[in-house]
Write a structure and sequence with these properties.
CATH superfamily of the largest domain: Nucleic acid-binding proteins
CATH architecture of the largest domain: Beta Barrel
CATH topology of the largest domain: OB fold (Dihydrolipoamide Acetyltransferase, E2P)
Structural class: alpha+beta
Largest sheet: 5 strands, mixed, barrel
Number of domains: 3
CATH class of the largest domain: Mainly Beta
Distance between the termini: 69 Å
Number of strands: 15
Number of helices: 7
Helix content: 25-40%
Amino acid sequence: MTEPDLRAEAEAIEDELPAAVELSIPQIEEKLTTFVINYQVPLEEARRSIISKTLDNAGIDQSSRGGGNPDVDLSDVNEPDEWIDVTAEVVELWEPRSDAIGQVGLIGDETGTLKFTAWAKSDLPNLEEGGVYRLGNVVTDEYQGRYSVKLNRTTTIEELDQEIVVGDNTTTMTGALVDVQSGSGLIKRCPAEGCTRVLSNDRCSEHGDVNGEFDMRIKGVIDNGEASQEVIFNRETTEEAIDLTLEDAKEKAKDALDTSVVEDTVREATIGEYFEVEGPILGRYLLVDDFSQLNSAPDPDAVIARARSM
């Protein structure tokens, strides 16, 4: 009898677990070895036991994992690590950047759009662009305020004979950038496949100590005199807003022996400047997909008054 590929099984289990669970593939493989090799427990039973105990230890509710998940509109996805069902159209498929990814793209319903990822090791049927599907037992994920859904080994896929008018969740706001928050400027992200978490002291919350990859962003607050909105500029929009490339920012930090010099540059270039920003609002943040810099505000006195009161 051929022995099972426990490494591949460990990778599949790791993919099925929520990102908040801190259990590495080698740790899962060790547990599988104990069950399957040492104690001759059937593989499927070992898988169920490991997943169930891990989620229990993490305090994660398992009641919905076998079915009966809530049907959720895409615009209502605002928490990571939730098991949900969605009905959506595949708006666009993208070329995967890794062999580990089976499919990646954009799905949409009447309320908006979200990115989806299906891992190759989950061995799921391919989705077709323009098709409408009921996706059962997908898990939500979050990166830099932007939410997505992951299709996993337990996901069910049912193609539907219906049409969906996909909604647009893009928002536009004009105002002054009145605050640059901590975590702006030059940052490092986890290089592990499928993980782009921002590191704290060169440590990823999921993968531990890693050799991070540099990125750049602006986390700030835009105010129009009547309301304020937290915003995130990604690398491309940050480079344009502060007229500094990532490579130049890295050199600037290297010369100063301090990455905070780039955050200072962000503040000098953007605080008090007026922007029109456009993008989806997910969670607390408007994610800036496009922007233009303005010469003045529609109501500068109101903006100044609110900025002084913050």
